[in-house]
Write a structure and sequence with these properties.
Non-ribosomal Peptide Synthetase Peptidyl Carrier Protein, Chain A; about 140 residues; single chain
Length: about 140
């Protein structure tokens, strides 16, 4: 029942797994995704700062000086800080709004580029079709003379 582990076999399997992992990491879409996650994290910090430091104080002034982060309900020993929830919902909505407009703009730009490509490309006619059209045009000219 005791199975001995062969070090050479372990090296082969480990090397193969490492090679597969290296190929996976080297793929472009994994790197793109990593960059997207990092940029999203940084963007989230910016939006949180805008919401916490600019928008929420202004909203608080408009609605009578209420600070959402301090809103809470105490039930026996538990404190429910629903103000933080409101704050996070506002953060989410602002991020979603910004991403919506970024995607919309990117789609508009790529769509415009595709339309320009389509306009430039005219379908090529076969030689037979071109010859037949020339014959037709010549016949029309003879009828008009």
């Amino acid at each position: 029942m005791d199975k001995k582990i062969d070090p050479e076999e372990l090296k082969k399997k480990g090397g193969k797994t490492f090679k597969e992992f290296k190929e996976f990491i080297a793929k472009g879409n994994v790197m793109d995704m990593a960059v997207g996650v990092i940029m999203g994290s940084a963007f989230g910090k910016i939006v949180t700062s805008i919401v916490n430091d600019i928008l929420m104080p202004l909203i608080g002034i408009v609605i009578g000086g209420v600070d959402f982060t301090n809103l809470s309900i105490k039930i026996k020993d538990a404190t429910i800080t629903y103000g933080n929830f409101i704050q996070n919902v506002i953060d989410f909505l602002i991020i979603a709004f910004c991403i919506f407009f970024m995607v919309k703009t990117i789609n508009k730009i790529t769509k415009k580029g595709k339309e320009e490509e389509k306009v430039e490309e005219e379908p090529k006619k076969e030689e037979n079709t071109v010859l037949l059209e020339e014959i037709r045009d010549l016949l029309k000219e003879k009828q008009n003379v």
